[in-house]
Amino acid sequence: xxxxxxxxxxxxxxxxxxxxxxxxxxxxxxxxxxxxxxxxxxxxxxxxxxxxxxxxxxxxxxxxxxxxxxxxxxxxxxxxxxxxxxxxxxxxxxxxxxxxxxxxxxxxxxxxxxxxxxxxxxxxxxxxxxxxxxxxxxxxxxxxxxxxxxxxxxxxxxxxxxxxxxxxxxxxxxxxxxxxxxxxxxxxxxxxxxxxxxxxxxxxxxxxxxxxxxxxxxxxxxxxxxxxxxxxxxxxxxxxxxxxxxxxxxxxxxxxxxxxx
Length: 261
Ligand code: NAP
What we know:
Layout lengths: L9 E5 L4 H13 L2 E6 L2 H15 L2 E6 L5 H15 L4 E4 L14 H29 L2 E6 L13 H21 L4 E8 L5 H4 L3 H8 L10 H11 L11 E4 L9 H5 L2
Helix pairs in contact: 1-2, 1-8, 3-4, 4-5
């Protein structure tokens, strides 16, 4: 197998201003790939890009993009292609996880979560296709979640629906894009220490850590390495698949099984 060095790859990471997305952008930059990271706030995105360029010595640019806005998403991909010459890898990672019990959930709550998490990742994937076809190389990695595809959690039924929806989307997209050699896969993180997760409170973090067989929350680098594998040349024969990265959280079949550790 011939492999292309990372410094010849160009990556777009949505939701790259913090948390898992920032970890993904950092790993690709460290490996030498050119990175465009996005978040809703253009200034914040550019500031994070400058930080990462400095700390990794890599090529990192930032752009303000709301993934709900189809035109903004297309403009960002065009900008990445103009800046870096091509776009080969998309990490569709932007997402939100507001907690809301079903009985209190408004139509607007449902729309917001589905629009950002599901429709946003579909729009971003679609926007990257022309550039990937021009580049002759395409790897799309979605950040889904264990919540929805694998597990359920009270207060997050809309979130679970959006994350399970991403998996339905990726299977159809993987088939449609296979003839072009573009792969579509997803990572399913468990509980990962990010700014977004921290907003759920220390008590939540403690309870989650105690339900993980490997005995700790995930770090953003744990997810980034799984993403980088699915985005690599070595993963050329993997498409339409999901990779759980959760420290074993979804493995115990009962609280008893967990208690024996
Ligand atoms: P986070 O710390 O809250 O970061 C979320 C990122 O998404 C930020 O960069 C944010 O940037 C961006 N974002 C939010 N809304 C956006 C929008 N409408 N348009 C564009 N960008 C937007 O979250 P995280 O914990 O890193 O989670 C990242 C992804 O991993 C999400 O898809 C989440 O569902 C998934 N995930 C996380 C965990 C976990 O334990 N942390 C577990 C499973 C799955 P701005 O605010 O600047 O727009």
